Amino acid sequence: MTIQELREPYPGYNDENRAHWVLIPTILFTILCPLLLAIRIHARRATTMLDRGDWISAVALFFNIATNVMFFAMVRHGFGKHSSVIPKHDLFSALQIWFFGQITHKIALHLTKVSLLLLYVRIFSHVRAFKLTAMGLIYFILLYMVSSTVVGICQCIPVASAWDLDIRGNCLNLYVIWNMNGIVSLVTDLIILGLPFPLVFGLHIPVSQKLALMPVFGLGVFIVVASALRVQSLLVSRVTDRTYDILGTLWTIIEYNLAFVCLCLPSVRVLLVRTWPTVFKSSVGRSQTSGATAGQGYARRSGAGGLRTWPVKIELDDRHWSRVGDGGLDGSDSTDEILRSGEVGVVAVEAAPAGITRTVGFNVEFEPVTAPAPAVTLVSRADEPQA
């Protein structure tokens, strides 16, 4: 029996390497995520102004890329191999990077969820109950992000004992911490996934349009699946070899990157519809009213927070218009909102139907009309009164 066979628990043990479990998804998402955010920002700037959700998504991408880079560095130091065959200095570096990667991963994932919820709040801004629920969930996610980050940093006392195996320290049960984080993440994913569906199903629009909306709000299904698989991988197998038992790490990479992809995809669709409208038709039909009856109207929120109404049909009195622009009457851009019937804040002569409405302002310029000269009446001298 050779010396090599004595050192190996089984043939091929020293050569086993799962680094591709980390490299393939991180390479793919490191290229894809910045591209999608650029498309999202471009689409948002083309239709409206950037808001806090867009800025939070940019911060989430920063931590997303930072985590991916750390996983690259871990592979360079032997991550994916058995810890017993990794040189001591490389094992020290891999575990140290892995420690900080857990922190940036939590921040990236939770900020992505916050940005997605802010997107929901913007779309369903007139549904008070939905808005309160979403904002409450946002605060919970932010608080949990801070607390889980602090616990992750202080998982071992002294902190350096988490990656330096030569330092004796008191550490929390990592198995319990990982499972708790995974379960909380899965529950919040399920809540985020289910929030918009009651409103979508309640819309007074054709079934075909409802089905077309499902993919927009149902992208979270993929995140839920990745989160569930991550929890399942942690529950069925205890991690005894932190550099080789990386199935949970694989699903972690997929989870936070896929969440960011799902956050940006609706904006990608908006850009595609605007760029190639004949190819990517909007799932929500637009109506063009050419002869609405008098009294019909719609509302638009003014800059001061009030509402202004004007008729759908504009009587032109046989005057010719030279140009129609699409700028808002108050200088703001058009917005898409999902409203519910009878919601406070919608003013119209007729009840505002539940559905997806698009508020569009138009600037109409008329050609100047020259008033005709007054008619001159000639009075005959024969008609003049006689003195």
Automatic annotation (TrEMBL):
Location relative to the cell: Membrane
Chief subcellular location: membrane
Pfam families referenced in this protein's UniProt entry, alphabetically: Fung_rhodopsin
Residues that span the membrane, as ranges: 20-43, 55-75, 107-125, 137-163, 183-204, 211-229, 249-272
Protein keywords: Membrane, Transmembrane, Transmembrane helix
Membrane topology, record value: Multi-pass membrane protein
InterPro entries reported in the protein's UniProt record: Rhodopsin_dom_fungi, SAT4-like
Residue ranges of domain Rhodopsin in the record: 39-273
Domain of life: Eukaryota
Similarity comment: Belongs to the SAT4 family.
PANTHER family for the chain: INTEGRAL MEMBRANE PROTEIN (PTHR33048:SF55), PTH11-LIKE INTEGRAL MEMBRANE PROTEIN (AFU_ORTHOLOGUE AFUA_5G11245) (PTHR33048)
Protein's UniProt name: Rhodopsin domain-containing protein
UniProt lineage: Eukaryota, Fungi, Dikarya, Ascomycota, Pezizomycotina
